[in-house]
C-alpha cells in the first residue's frame, strides 16, 4: 500500500530559483535564505521518497485565461521546465508517475472533488523552485513528481475548507493504491506578499508565524480564514497559502515537526518553510 | 443578486475578480503573447504597431506603452500576466513592482529589507489614520 509519510512546505519565489541558477546563493542578500535550507537538504537526502505530490500554482505559464482549472493534476510521464519569458530554467525535466496520478484523479473525482486531468503542459517556478531548494542540482531529480495545480490567480481560488477536505481525500486515495510507495506531499507558495498596486510590499510577520504554528498543531482552525482575510492580512498574493492546507490535511493529524524557517525578505515576499513527518513514521 | 465584494475596503489593492478578468481579458492575453521570443522581438521593434494588433482600449494601450503598471492593473491586468511585460523590458521583478508604490527602487528595497510594508494602517481604508 502507498502511504504519505512527510510534508514539506515552502515558498516558491522565482528570484530564489534565479539565485540558484546564477550562482549568487552565497551573497549577503541570499545566504540567510539558503542557510535556512541546509538542514532541509540533508533531511531530504536521507528521506528520498518514491513520489512527491507537489501542490503549486501555475503563473500564467502553462495556462492563460482561455481555461482556468480550479484543481488540476498532471498525469503524464514527463514535464519540461517552462520558458517564463527569460528562457527555461537549466534543470532536468520532471518525471511524473502516471499510474498513481490517474489513480488519484479517479479516486478523488469519485469522492466528489472534480479534478481537471492535465497531460500536455510545462511546469514553472511554482513547482521547480521548491525542488531546487530541497535537492542538489543534478542530472536528474531523484524521485518522481506529480504536479498538482491550484488556481490562486483568478479570484476566487478554492476555499481553505475545500482545500483541506481535498487533502484528506488525497490521503485516502494514496492509501488505496496497491503498490508499496513512500509518498511525500509538498505545499508551496506564500507566505505574506503583495506584488501589485499601491500596497505592494506588504509583509505580515505576526500573521505568518501564527499560520505556521496553527498549521502544525491545529490545522483545521485555518479553514476558518476567509478569502478577504487572506488578502487583507497576507496580501493579494498571500491567498495562495490555501495550497498549504491541501498538503497539511493529506499528512494526517498527528505530526512531528522536523524543521521550521522564516525569513523576510526574499524579493517581495516573506519566505516560510516547514518539514513535518507523520507521527511515528 | 450580485455577489458582495468584502475586499473593496483594502487599501492600495485591486483583486483580480470576475469583473477585472472580463475587463482585462484581451490585455492579459496580449501579455501572454510576449512569452514567445519572436513576439517579444516584434513588439520591441515597434511597440505601438504590435499593440494595435490587439483589441485593447486606449487606456490599456497607454498603460502598456508608458509602462504605467498601475494603469495596467486598473484596466484589468493581472500581475502574473503583466510580468511578461517586465521580462520583455528585461526589468527585474522587484524593481518593476517598486514602480507601482510611488517609491524609488532604492526606497522600496530598503523597505523590504527592513521587514516590508507594515500591516498596521494598511488593513482597511476605514482603519484609524493615526496608525499610518
CATH architect. name of the domain at 17-89 in chain B: Orthogonal Bundle
Taking the sheet with the most strands of chain B, its summary is:
none
Largest sheet of chain A: 8 strands, mixed
Tally of DSSP β-strands of chain A: 10
Strand content of chain A is: 15-25%
Rg on CA atoms of chain B, Å: 17 Å
What is the typical, i.e. mean, pLDDT of chain A? 97
CATH C-level of chain A: Alpha Beta
DSSP summary, beta strand count of chain B: 0
Distance between the termini of chain A: 15 Å
Please indicate the count of domains of chain A.
1
Largest interface, chains and sizes: A-B, 44 and 50 residues
Order of helices and strands of chain A: EHHHEEEEHEHEHEHHHEE
Integer average pLDDT of chain B: 94
Range of helix content of chain A: 25-40%
Poorly predicted regions of chain A are none
Question: What is the end-to-end distance of chain B?
Answer: 36 Å
SSE diagram, text form:
The complex is a heterodimer of chains A (281) and B (132).
Chain A: E1 3-10, H1 14-22, H2 31-35, H3 38-46, E2 51-56, E3 71-74, E4 78-79, E5 94-95, H4 98-110, E6 116-118, H5 125-134, E7 144-150, H6 160-175, E8 182-188, H7 205-217, H8 227-234, H9 242-251, E9 255-266, E10 269-278
Helix pairs in contact in A: 1-5, 4-6, 6-9
Chain B: H1 18-23, H2 25-33, H3 37-45, H4 47-52, H5 58-65, H6 69-74, H7 79-88, H8 93-98, H9 105-113
Helix pairs in contact in B: 2-7
